[in-house]
Design a protein that fits this description.
The protein is mainly α and about 270 residues long. The chain is built from 14 helices and two strands, in the order αααααααβααααααβα. The chain has two domains: about 15-100; about 105-269, no CATH class. It is about 65% helix and about 0% strand. It has a two-stranded antiparallel sheet. The longest helix is centred in the last third of the chain and has 19 residues, at about 190-210.
């Protein structure tokens, strides 16, 4: 099914990521549980205290699968996704809530429209995942110390990015690449934007391709790039001042805080 931005009378248009979020959550629940929609309805479709009954089962998971309905017993699409929490409390399904509540879904719908916003969001991401920027010179020394390699500026940045993101789950990696791409682009650093765009292209393709048929994967890929690369932007004189500063900062590689601390500690000895 090709993703579309659809709406019914009186409802806001659904963003493509809302459809994708529900679809991926359902696929995760279905794969991990290994049971049918009927069994999922019997386990999670009834309110607490209700006695599950085949005759009264809500066919909730069938609607989620076919119509990408928000996982809630409520009829209104804005109601809380209470089913997500109940499913996650079931042994073996704990990871499904991390997928549904990943930062990616918020970030892709609330992309920074100014460089100031991008800088703040990137810093929040780096802090949350215990990452930090260091100068290219120090990053190159750190890599040489750890692996014996002597990278140039381009390979150094990419090497550090892969090292920093390798332990992150896929949606967190995508979140970081989306934010870093917007920051570099808004700062006017075309060189780093191109490098980050290459990483983003590869990650989006690897994310969508195994989960969907070729056409649907390409549709989601194009929708994501359209929002990330051509989404709304603002600006002003203050933004021009920031561009001068961050055009340089966005060149600085990113490494895990623990690795940076170890490197500086060894350099002192």
């Amino acid at each position: 099914m090709t993703p579309q931005k659809t709406s019914k009378k009186g409802r806001p248009t659904k963003h493509w990521s809302d459809i994708l979020r529900v679809k991926l959550w359902y696929l995760s629940v279905s794969d991990l549980s290994g049971v049918s929609d009927y069994e999922l309805d019997m386990r999670f479709g009834f309110s607490l205290g209700e006695t599950p009954s085949s005759a009264d089962r809500p066919r909730l998971f069938e609607e989620i699968r076919k119509k990408n309905r928000i996982p809630s017993r409520g009829n209104h699409w804005r109601k809380p996704s209470d089913i997500v929490a109940r499913v996650a409390n079931h042994p073996g399904l704990e990871s499904t809530i991390r997928l549904y509540e990943a930062d990616f879904w918020r970030v892709i719908k609330e992309l920074p429209t100014t460089l100031s916003q991008a800088n703040k969001m990137v810093q929040v991401f780096l802090t949350k995942h215990q990452l930090e920027r260091i100068t290219w010179h120090d990053a190159k020394q750190a890599i040489t110390t750890m692996s014996g390699e002597r990278p140039d500026e381009h390979s150094c940045f990419s090497h550090c990015l892969k090292t920093s993101f390798q332990k992150l789950v896929v949606l967190d990696r995508l979140t970081g690449l989306v934010l870093l791409n917007r920051q570099a682009d808004m700062s006017g650093n075309l060189e780093m934007t191109e490098i980050l765009r290459s990483h983003l292209d590869e990650s989006l393709e690897l994310f969508f391709s195994p989960r969907f048929g070729w056409q649907e994967a390409m549709d989601y890929y194009q929708l994501a790039l359209e929002d990330i690369c051509f989404g709304a932007r603002g600006g002003g004189s203050s933004e021009m001042d920031l561009r001068t500063r961050y055009e340089s900062i966005t060149r600085d590689p990113i490494l895990p805080m623990t690795m940076v601390s170890d490197f500086y500690a060894k350099r002192k000895t």
